[in-house]
Specification:
Number of strands: 51
CATH topology of the domain at 645-913: Rossmann fold
Pfam family, one: Peptidase_S9
Structural class: alpha+beta
Distance between the termini: 63 Å
Shape: globular
Protein name: Probable glutamyl endopeptidase, chloroplastic
CATH architecture of the domain at 645-913: 3-Layer(aba) Sandwich
Largest sheet: 8 strands, mixed
CATH superfamily of the domain at 645-913: Alpha/Beta hydrolase fold, catalytic domain
Subcellular location: Plastid, Chloroplast stroma
GO molecular function: serine-type endopeptidase activity
Low-confidence stretches: 1-20, 22-101, 917-975
Family: Belongs to the peptidase S9D family.
Length: about 1000
């Protein structure tokens, strides 16, 4: 397949901001700030693409900011690379060639240097703290990967994508190196010690600390001569010496990382998922099928599924999935001893008990399904002793193809099976009482059970708590305290219960009962501390003056002025609170990340409290601090450079405005460095958003986010166009509200247009946006929004950019986004919401971008293909770019750069210098009437001349150079 054709194949997704912190003794997670319960696992992904097109005329030095230099688009190392990153007089006017050949050449393009330099900036390292909080790892990362990484063969099986060569998930990011720093008593960092002994070009994944903090375990893979990656091998490193070595002496033992990978059983032993040595070659696809592909529902079961992708298709796929996913577990000690653990199976998770005596194993098995992904395949959960002795089977759940599509519907049988964090080896789980169907009214709806890992003969599961809503998790503390969470999406209700797990005579009571949408009433979440066993439990804090025990509530502090994070001492018995820390609301946005004084057992003393915070401002990127009580002295422990100094002085403001139905809306307005509205006038503006559903106007009106947060700019962020002298309205709230029994989507178009009108009116009222030069864009559901706005509110926007969207809701008939009803239950809603059905109404230019291998439910690449054909069939000005090898978000540098080139070209051609402007100039020349700039109004011949005559010199000459002929204001200006 050739790379991008006239109709290229592309899309985009913003990368995380440079606030990546890992804080875990197991697999690190990429988060801005950590949850207080034990940490989640995550892998960062990056996404974007580009080149150049021809200019029609030379540039002229000017302060006319409707356009930007085009020669910066030339070649990566050629041409004038200067852009418009600085003062307001740094830009110049330019016209774009209408010749289609300039935009139809094959190959990847590069965006202007001012955008490219930001995207190519070296990524900041991720951080990982040791279990004892005495060391910090700096995990080095590379910039955007090449397209060749994405082009490697992958198997799409049962909802997962597998790199068969290295037997892991495909397209994994990785670290390139590990640096160790000691955290000194004064909070400063010691010199970096690099992990030594790694092979050149090592790709590092799945890094985790041993419980005592003395060793690191991680996987290493290498690039091979044919461009593929080698299989993964487990390595271990001594933290004190920095020396690393392979865990297995045999070169034939590799990790199978399709599902889980490895886990520390104790400080000297790991349980590893390995590829069975006797596996052999993968199954061959038969040249002639054994028979037709048949699916049957002769039992008349009701089976409704969303549009899952990458499902199994036939018996060969079933065999292939089983081949790659089957694992042989191996116990491996640091001294070289190896022991097989259990039979080969498709193990999806393995979890040691806190006392390291047992292992909880979860596996999946046949019969597989052709209509749902592997998460719904038959599921078996077993308890084994840590020495490899089988104890018992907890459950063997059947294939779950018929889980209702209604939110809060779940699988039948035992679910959420875990170890209690506060006990040596006690299990807990949940069982539904409504058959898993959220539409069934029953009380209780869920029951939580608990039982020891190896119960006595007559020991039955104990009921811990009953819930009328759907179970949402437990925060454990001890036998006197645990917090149980339940919620219900339909009503947005969330409750927190206080229970005493060890006291049957203490009645549970509700601690918090609120709406999940009401961010102003959020009391915060209890902070967790790490136990010696490596688990996380609710932290208890003691005040020396009164001897009482308190919890620490860490909250985002949502207010009408924005988020002001806080830390409260909370008396769980009386409900009283004492605020012991709060972010600076004037300049900074600071959040509590984790406890750093939890190395010892027992209650924490308030006078010895130490926490880790992240701190940032509008122009200062995130740094990490240690804050110590009682003085609350802050010590900065990182000093990361500004990731894009060329935009260091960008202007940011959180703005509020009102929709015509009275709903209060918010957005973040960004303006380029050096911009002065009184001097520079209105700018071309890019509006980038994503709709959200609410149950009440009050909740939709609440402010979310902080005006002091650092402007994180990812590889495909709309904020990149600040470097091109655009105003950017980021995240204007687009609330779709369905109060009471009303469904939000029944008035989707009406509310969508009203929200967009309010946002556009606000930026025009402020004088920062040219009303004729406002573009709209979005990714995924934001792309769906963009297409609908161009169809139903063409008066608001000059063009649109829609990336990786869905446009025909009848292709997702069993629900989409937050819509629970099926196509047959809400036919009008599905049809009226679909911009595909309104393709004949779209008259403004629209750029469609999509990944050719999109695996997101509902946004198949076909959605953009068919929408483009519908637009083209009605003569719309449109362009479709399909990105080879890219998924819902984009990963390769070539793809990302090309997306940026396509986007920039579209914005320059149809927004900054659109054909509408050319038409106005022609009208001014030929008819002596029309508009010259965004603030002009239609006037007669004399008026048109006077408007041109009154322009400042730079703007006038910029227009004349663009137009190419003498303008009617020349003579007037000579006088």
């Amino acid at each position: 397949m050739s790379l991008p054709k006239v109709y290229h194949r592309f899309s985009l997704l913003s990368l995380h901001s440079p606030k990546t912190l890992f804080f875990s003794s197991s697999l690190p997670l990429a988060v801005k700030r950590l949850p207080s319960p034990p940490l989640l696992r995550a892998h960062s992904r990056r996404f974007v693409t580009g080149k150049q097109f021809k200019a029609k005329s030379a540039m002229a030095s000017s302060r006319f900011h409707l356009v930007v230099p085009v020669n910066a688009l030339a070649i990566e190392d050629g041409g004038n690379g200067s852009g418009s990153n600085g003062a307001a007089n740094a830009t110049a006017s330019v016209a774009y060639d209408d010749d289609l050949e300039s935009a139809s050449e094959t190959g990847y393009r590069l965006p202007p240097r001012e955008i490219r330099d930001i995207v190519d900036a070296p990524p900041l390292p991720a951080l990982s703290f040791s279990p004892l909080r005495d060391k910090i790892l700096f995990l080095k990362r590379r910039s955007l990967p090449p397209l060749s990484d994405l082009a490697r063969p992958e198997e799409k099986l049962a909802g997962v994508r597998i790199d068969g060569k290295c037997n892991t998930r495909s397209r994994m990011s990785f670290y390139t190196g590990i640096g160790i720093h000691h955290l000194m008593e004064d909070g400063s960092l010691g010199p970096e010690k690099e992990i030594q002994g790694l092979p050149e070009g090592a790709r590092i994944n799945f890094l985790t600390w041993s419980n005592n903090g003395q060793h690191l375990a991680f996987t290493v893979r290498l690039d091979e001569d044919d461009g593929s990656s080698s299989k993964l091998r487990v390595w271990v490193a001594n933290v004190d010496t920095g020396k690393a070595r392979p865990l297995f002496e045999s070169p034939d033992i590799y990790v199978n990382a399709v599902f889980d990978n490895f886990v520390w059983v104790n400080d000297s032993t790991l349980l590893v998922c390995t590829i069975p040595l006797s596996r052999g070659d993968p199954p061959r696809k038969p040249l002639v099928p054994s028979g037709p592909k048949i699916q049957s529902n002769e039992q008349k079961n009701v089976i409704q599924s969303r549009t899952y992708q990458d499902l199994l298709k036939d018996e060969y796929d079933e065999d292939l999935f089983e081949y790659y996913a089957t694992t042989q577990l191996v116990l491996a000690s640091l001294d070289g001893e190896i022991k097989p653990f259990g039979p080969p199976a498709i193990y999806t998770s393995m979890d040691p008990s806190p006392d390291q005596a047992y292992i909880l194993l979860t596996s999946t098995h046949r019969p597989f399904s052709f209509v749902v992904p592997c998460g719904r395949f038959p599921k078996k959960v077993e308890v084994w002793k840590a020495n490899g002795e089988f104890v018992r089977e907890l459950c063997d759940l059947p294939l779950a193809e018929n889980i209702p599509i209604a939110f809060n519907s779940v699988r039948k049988g035992m679910r959420s099976i875990n170890w209690r964090a506060d006990k040596p080896s006690n299990l807990y789980w949940v069982e539904t009482q409504d058959g898993g169907d959220a539409k069934v009214e029953v009380s209780p709806r869920d029951i939580i059970y608990t039982q020891s890992a190896a119960p006595h003969e007559n020991e039955h599961p104990k009921i811990l708590h009953k819930l009328d809503l759907r179970y949402g998790g437990i925060s454990w503390c001890d036998d006197t305290l645990a917090l149980v969470y339940e919620s219900w999406y339909k009503t947005r209700k969330v409750r927190t219960w206080v229970i005493s797990p060890g006291s049957e005579n203490v009645n549970p009571r509700i601690l918090f009962d609120r709406s999940s949408e009401d961010v102003y009433s959020d009391p915060g979440s209890p902070m967790s501390r790490r136990t010696p066993a490596g688990t996380y439990v609710i932290a208890k804090v003691k005040k020396e003056d009164d001897g009482d025990t308190y919890l620490l509530l860490n909250g985002s502090g949502a207010t009408p002025e924005g988020n002001i994070p806080f830390l409260d001492l909370f008396d769980i018995n009386t409900g009283s609170k004492e605020r012991i820390w709060q972010s600076n609301r004037e300049k900074y946005f600071e959040t509590v990340v984790a406890l750093m004084s939890d190395q010892k057992e027992g209650e924490l003393s308030i006078n010895k409290l130490k926490i880790l915070t992240s701190k940032e401002s509008k122009t200062e990127n995130t740094q990490y601090y240690l804050l110590s009580w009682p003085e609350k002295k802050a010590c900065q422990i990182t000093n990361f450079p500004h990731p894009y100094p060329q935009l260091e002085s960008l202007q940011k403001e959180m703005i509020r405005y009102q929709r015509k139905d009275g709903v209060q809306l918010t957005a973040t307005l960004y303006l380029p460095p050096g911009y002065d509205p009184s001097r520079d006038g209105p700018l071309p503006c890019l509006v980038w958003s994503y709709p959200g559903e609410f149950k009440s106007k009050d909740a939709a009106s609440q402010v979310r986010g902080s005006p002091n947060e650092f402007a994180g700019i990812g590889p495909t962020s709309p904020l990149l166009w600040l470097a091109r002298r655009f105003a950017v309205l980021s995240g204007p709230t687009i609330p779709i509200i369905g109060e009471g029994d009303e469904e939000a989507n029944d008035r989707y178009i009406e509310q969508l247009v009203a929200s967009a009108e309010a946002a556009v009116e606000e930026v025009i009222r402020r004088g920062v946006a040219d009303p004729n030069k406002i573009a709209v864009g979005g990714h995924s559901y934001g792309a769906f929004m963009t297409a609908n706005l161009l169809a139903h509110a063409p008066h608001l926007f000059c063009c649109g950019i829609a990336r990786s969207g869905a446009y025909n809701r009848t292709l997702t008939p069993f629900g989409f986004q937050n819509e629970e009803r099926t196509l047959w239950e809400a036919t009008n809603t599905y049809v009226e919401m679909s911009p595909f059905m309104s393709a004949n109404k779209i008259k403004k230019p629209i750029l469609l971008i999509h990944g050719e291998e999109d695996n997101n439910p509902g946004t198949l690449t076909m959605q953009s293909d068919r929408f483009f054909n519908a637009l083209k069939g009605h003569g719309a000005l449109c362009r479709l770019v399909i990105l080879p090898y890219e998924s819902h978000g984009y990963g390769a540098r070539e793809s990302i750069m090309h997306v940026l080139w396509e986007t920039d070209r579209w914005l320059q051609k149809h927004c900054a210098y659109s054909s509408d402007v050319k038409a106005d100039l022609n009208a001014c020349k030929d008819n002596a009437e029309g508009t010259v700039d965004s603030q002009s109004k239609a006037v007669g011949a004399a008026g048109g001349v006077q408007e041109l005559a009154n322009l400042d010199d730079d703007k006038f000459h910029s227009i004349r150079r663009f137009h190419g002929d003498k303008l009617p204001g020349d003579e007037a200006r000579s006088h």
